[in-house]
Amino acid sequence: MEIMEHLILESENNERIDKIISALNEEWSRSQVQQWIKEGHVNVNGKQVKSNYKCVMNDQIIIEIPEPEALNVEPEDMNLDIYYEDGDVLVVNKPKGIVVHPAPGHTSGTLVNGLMAHCTDLSGINGVLRPGIVHRIDKDTSGLLMVAKNDFAHERLVNQLVEKSVTRKYYAIVHGVIPHNVGTIDAPIGRDSDDRQKMTVVDNGKHAVTHFRVIERFDQFTFVECELETGRTHQIRVHMKYIGYPLAGDPKYGPRKTLPIDGQALHAGVLGFIHPRTEKYLEFEAPLPEEFTKLLDSLKN
User: Fold this and answer.
1) 282 in a domain, yes or no?
2) How many C-beta atoms surround the C-beta of residue 178 within 10 A?
3) For residues 209 and 185, is the Cβ–Cβ distance under 8 A?
4) Which of 88, 138, 140, 250 is catalytic?
C-alpha cells in the first residue's frame, strides 16, 4: 500500500479535506477520496476525520492509497469498424456512445471488451483495464483510435504522441459564428477545483494547444476542424468553450438548450502516424457519422 503525505498550505486553510486530497491527483475523484476517508485510509495529525473536516494550515495529512481493485474484464463480441490491422497496430472507428476502456463499476460494453474478443494480442503496458489503448476519446465522441497489439508498438506510438508527430483532426459544430478563418488556442488545462468531473483552463495546468479552421458558418453555429497538437482530457471541448464557442450538444461544457443531439457534436475524423515497425507514415479518414451529417443539413436549411 502506497503512503502519501501532505502538509496543509496557507492557501488550503479552511478547505474541506476531501476537496484538498482529490486535487492532489487528477485520477482521484472526490467520491473515491470520501470512500477512503470513510474506510480509515486518511488521518490528520494522527487522527481519523470525516470528509467535511475543514483543514488548518500546517495540518499533517497521511493518505494510505489502497491497492486498485482487481477487475475481471471479459471479451465481448462487437461489430468493430476496423480501418487497418496488422501484427503491430489496429485502427478502429469508435461509434458514439461507447466508452473506450473499463473502469470500476463499468466493466462491460466498452471498446476494450470488443477488442479483446477480436484479437488476443494486445499490449499490456496500460494494464488489464486498458490493454492496447494508446490514446482515448470521450464516450460521446466518435472516430478513429490507434491500438497497439504489443509493447514494442505501444512504446513507439506513445513516443509519437509525446513528440507531437501524430496527426489528429477532429470535426465539430460549435455555438456562435467564429469571425476569423483560422486560429490557435494555447492555454493550459487542469482539473476544475470546483467540479472534479470537469477540466478547465488554469495557470498551473498542463500545456495544451489546439489549432482550428472554419469550414462553414451558419446563423448561430460554426462547423470547424480542430487539430490537436497536445492531447489533454476534454481538450477541444475545454478550449472551444474558453474562447466563447462551446461545442453543440456538450452536456458538460456547453449551454443546455442546443441542437437535437445526444452529447457533443465531435468526431475524430483523421488519424495519421508513423508505423512503429515499417516506419512508413499511415493516415486514415473516417467520414462523419449520419447523426452529424443530418445536423449539418438541418443547419444549412
Assistant:
1) no
2) 20
3) yes
4) 138
Q: Is residue 9 part of a domain?
A: yes
Tens-digit pLDDT profile for residues 253-280: 999 778 888 899 999 999 999 999 999 9
Q: What is the DSSP string of 103-153?
A: BTTB-SSSHHHHHHHH-S----TT-TTSTTBSS---TT-EEEEEEESSHHH
Kindly report, residue by residue over 118-143, the tens digit of the pLDDT.
987 888 767 666 778 899 899 999 99
Cβ proximity of 44 and 59 under 8 Å: yes
pLDDT of residue 104: 66
Question: Same domain for 176 and 154?
Answer: no
Pull the grid cell for residue 187.
492555454
Residues 129 and 77 in one domain: yes
Q: Which three cell numbers stand for residue 137?
A: 476519446
- Retrieve residue 125's grid coordinates: 503496458
Residues 272, 282 contacting (CB under 8 angstroms): yes
How many Å apart are CA 110 and CA 66, to the nearest integer? Answer: 25
Query: In the beta sheet, which residues pair with residue 272?
Result: 167, 283
The pLDDT > 70 percentage for the chain reads 95
Q: Supply the mean pLDDT for the chain.
A: 91
150 SS3 class: coil
Is 219 in the active site?
no
Q: Residue ranges of the alpha helices (H) in the chain?
A: 17-22, 30-38, 111-118, 151-162, 235-242, 290-300
